[in-house]
Amino acid sequence: MVTGDHDAGAAGAAAAEEEASRLRRRSSAAAEEEEEEEEWGSEPDDGDHPVAERVGGLLGFFFVRAWTKALQRCGALKHPFTRQENTVIQTCVVACSGIAFSGGFGSYLFAMSETIAKQSTEANDAQNIKDPKLGWMIGFLFVVSFLGLFSVVPLRKIMIIDYKLIYPSGTATAHLINSFHTPQGAKLAKKQVKTLGKFFVVSFLWGFFQWFYTGGDDCGFLAFPSLGLEAYQNRFYFDFSATYVGVGMICPYLVNVSVLLGGILSWGIMWPLIEGKKGDWFPADLPSTSLHGLQGYRVFIAIALILGDGLYNFFKVLARTISAFASQIRSKSSTTTLPITDGNSPTADTTQISYDDQRRTELFLKDQIPNLVAFGGYAAIAIISIITIPHIFPQLKWYYILVTYIVAPVLAFCNAYGCGLTDWSLASTYGKLAIFTIGAWAGLSHGGVLAGLAACGVMMSIVSTASDLTQDFKTGYMTLASPRSMFISQMFGTAMGCVIAPSVFWLFYKAFKDIGVPGSEYPSPNALVYRNMAILGVEGFSSLPKHCLTLCFIFFAAAIVVNLIRDLVPKKVSRFIPLPMAMAIPFYLGSYFAIDMCIGSLILFVWERINKAEADAFAPAVASGLICGDGIWTLPQSVLALAQVKPPICMKFLSRSMNSKVDAYIAKIS
């Protein structure tokens, strides 16, 4: 059984085929209306990228279609592969991959480790450290990752049918899946998968080739000073990463340019100036990783930008939510849509319900998920986790978790609602809120840093999975898929992710001993940011270096002002104003990945100017192939590292004077 209710899917298949042309026409019209905005893109999603959903739908279609054709040749195929089954498959894939984000392997969870704690001079005692172990990671994810699914189930009809929320990513994925199940769409999907496979192989082989030259510290193409040695010292260089080039092709132009501007502002201007204040603003003899020195400015100014941007958008979405509810209450008609939707949107006109919407609503409401199941499931899992989590994190008391679970459904609703309006998940912002509140409540002497980080994980898991499921419900509504099947698929995908994601992270953690170390291949900057947020929450501002707090306030206010200007000016102007959240990323990490991403943007820009239709169709496949190939290469690389197989060559770059000294030393000892 693929869909959980195959009869419902089969019953809607004929109607779905009939509406395919209408859906494609609407999709094309919407694309034309949004073409100008998409040229530079919107604000970056804080959660899963829509490409994950689209690639999940594409690969689900391709592999299952290939399997059903094989069964058909054997005479064993009883039912055709439908768009409903395709939707259920991509729901499972996205749910599984979503745990990689909400699991916090590069943020709150890894921030608990000794590796990250050593980079901070405060709160690095035993009660504020917990190193990753596969057992407790899987257990923790199992008891926190399902609550968000049950929290929004009773509200699915309100979100999708009554309020007619857009959920842009879910709608786009539905259009993509609907287009696959036509003769023209199937041919295009086949070409896209071939393109993805081709660039997957190229990226994999490129990673394999680079490995041969990494036989020592700072060796290989990753340490290539492509812009000069001085620029390299300030982290300005192209590191030949296929992953970041692919990411640059996926991210909007504005995001990539914002990241580059942030790198220029920080590493090109601010940090060299602050470095010149050594001995005045901070002691000159401090280690480079001390938060009382230059590192403190890097970390906390980045945090100020992130918090300013996140809080602004949190209150913006909250204000829109309150306004929408107020309008809904004042409205006499239950079918009136929210006033904040675009007047040009097909959902803005509700005086007549189309046949398509009538058919979708009928099938969407056919498979009811009883509220008793939702409420009972939430209560049961909450009780289990309240009992279990304190055994994993003794610092996180049961009453902290109880309060979190009382508040979490409201925040999950706000996140799912806001995601339907803006396509922006604020899961990490809600998580940071938990860091400050629970951490301050617990206090430093009672393991407040670890308690805050664990509470962040609880909150992020709930609000992230809630918005993901509602996005998938929207996709299912548009493709006439069974909501009950979608929910079951999401449950299966979440369970798979709770095992697969920590297992993959554990493999990396054991294979690469320098994960989380600054300057390594995997520096994990977000983990340090999250840990320092937790330290700030329990210690206050007294530990910051001189003038750091003033600079933090300036950048916090600047993030709010920039976002306010973006919202007040016309769209044709705002699409050229940089995004503070994106600018904050290189403040700690450096600009090397920004250069990679901008090269990806340049490739896409040139491609669009040469053949825009081809670029629109195949650029996501090319980018996904580059990212996946480079990512999959790390698995055999991990195996080689575990087997202690070392690369044979070290390719390193030296200045002319240093090279002369090395030559003289070699001549002397020989």
Instruction: Report the mean per-residue pLDDT as an integer.
Output: 79
Strand percent estimate: under 5%
Q: Helical percent range?
A: over 70%
Cα shape: globular
Q: What can you tell me about this protein's structure?
A:
With 670 residues, the protein is mainly alpha-helical. It has one domain. Helix content is 70%, strand content 0%. The protein is built from 27 helices and no strands. Helix 4 (83-102) packs antiparallel against helix 19, helix 14 (294-330) runs antiparallel to helix 24 (580-589) and helix 16 (371-392) crosses helix 17 (398-422). The model is unreliable at 1-50 and 332-351 (pLDDT under 50).
Output the keywords.
mainly alpha; globular
Give me the secondary-structure topology.
Blueprint: H1 6-33, H2 35-40, H3 50-73, H4 83-102, H5 114-117, H6 134-144, H7 147-152, H8 156-162, H9 168-180, H10 183-211, H11 229-233, H12 242-250, H13 253-275, H14 294-330, H15 355-366, H16 371-392, H17 398-422, H18 427-442, H19 448-479, H20 483-511, H21 525-539, H22 548-568, H23 571-574, H24 580-589, H25 592-610, H26 612-642, H27 656-669
Helix pairs in contact: 1-9, 1-15, 3-4, 3-9, 3-10, 4-19, 4-20, 6-16, 6-20, 9-19, 10-26, 12-25, 12-26, 13-24, 13-25, 14-17, 14-21, 14-22, 14-24, 15-19, 16-17, 17-18, 17-19, 18-19, 18-21, 19-20, 19-21, 20-26, 25-26
